[in-house]
Amino acid sequence: MTLLLGQKVPNFKQQSTQGEIDLYDYLDASWGVLFSHPADFTPVCTTELGRVGQLEADFKKRNVKVLALSVDGVDSHQRWVSDIEQTQDTKVAYPILADADRSVSKLYDMLPAGDAPNTLTVRSVFIIDPNKVLRLSLTYPASTGRNFDEILRVIDSLQLTDQHKVATPVDWKAGEDVVIVPSLTDEAEIAERFPSGYRTVKPYLRLTKDPVSG
Ligand code: BEZ
User: Fold this and answer.
1) Which of 45, 64, 96, 128 is catalytic?
2) Residue 1 scores a pLDDT above 70
3) What is the percent of the chain where pLDDT is above 70?
4) What is the rounded CA–CA span in Å between residue 138 and residue 166?
5) Is the distance from the beta carbon of residue 122 to the nearest atom of ligand 1 less than 6 Å?
6) What is the Cα–Cα distance from 67 to 16, expressed in whole angstroms?
7) pLDDT at res. 182
8) Alpha carbon of residue 64 to chain centroid
9) Shortest CA distance to 105 belongs to which of 37, 42, 44?
10) Which residue's CA lies nearest to atom 7 of ligand 1?
């Protein structure tokens, strides 16, 4: 099943390092980041899960709950978490799903091509909003560690653009200028929404201050 942006994500129950998790119950009214890694006790994955641990406060500040997943068992995850915490100088306070039966991996299309019974998950990321709607999905190869600052950047963009009639340009970071959506043409509304004014580069490219932190 391919999950499309804008679709409600399917619920699941699966074992984890923090007991059985029901996705919808776990997320409750929060945003969610569900991400898979190929295998425990592997180098790139160790750095990735460590980085997510280091970013705990950054996810919390944005009302995001994090959930990792691989096809390894709970015992393996628990032994590996000790290594992550020791080598990456952090705590892994978020749960890691133990998807040994690959039920969630199949439901969310986290497996590579082929049908070998022992397939490992690829590096998938899903950003889920409080309505359980899929807002971002990405897939990385096993040899390339992801950039979780980029995941936070996308969450900042989604949370901003959900509330304001703006979009965020290339390489945007919170506090930098944003783009007024082309559909907004009423000058009175623009003046009300963006009291600091805006700059027209082209009629379709109008820049204004970040309405939250600009
Ligand atoms: C790693 O995390 O280092 C890794 C995992 C699976 C395949 C290749 C690299």
Assistant:
1) 45
2) no
3) 100
4) 23
5) no
6) 9
7) 96
8) 8
9) 37
10) 142
Q: How many CA atoms lie within 13 A of 87 on its CB side?
A: 15
Q: Of all helices (H) and strands (E), which one includes residue 137?
A: strand 134-140
Task: Return the exposure string of 7-27: e unless at least 16 CB atoms fall within 10 Å of the residue's CB, then b.
Answer: eebeebebbbbeeebebbebb
Half-sphere exposure of 196 (CA within 13 A, CB side): 13
Gap between the Cα atoms of 147 and 149, Å rounded: 5
Retrieve residue 177's tokens: 């200028």
> Taking a C-beta distance cutoff of 8 angstroms, is the pair 33, 67 a contact?
yes
User: Per-residue pLDDT tens for 165-180?
Assistant: 999 999 999 999 999 9
**Percent of the chain predicted with pLDDT > 90:** 95
- Does residue 50 have its Cβ closer than 6 Å to ligand 1? no
Euclidean distance between the first and final Cα of the chain, in Å? 40
Record the pTM: 0.96
- 121 Cα: distance to centroid of ligand 1 (angstroms): 11
Q: How many CB atoms lie within 10 A of CB 108?
A: 24
- Residue 41 zone, left/alpha/beta (φ > 0; ψ -120 to 50; rest): left
Contact 76, 82 (CB under 8 A): no
Instruction: Please indicate whether residue 42, judged by its CB atom, sits closer than 6 Å to ligand 1.
Output: yes
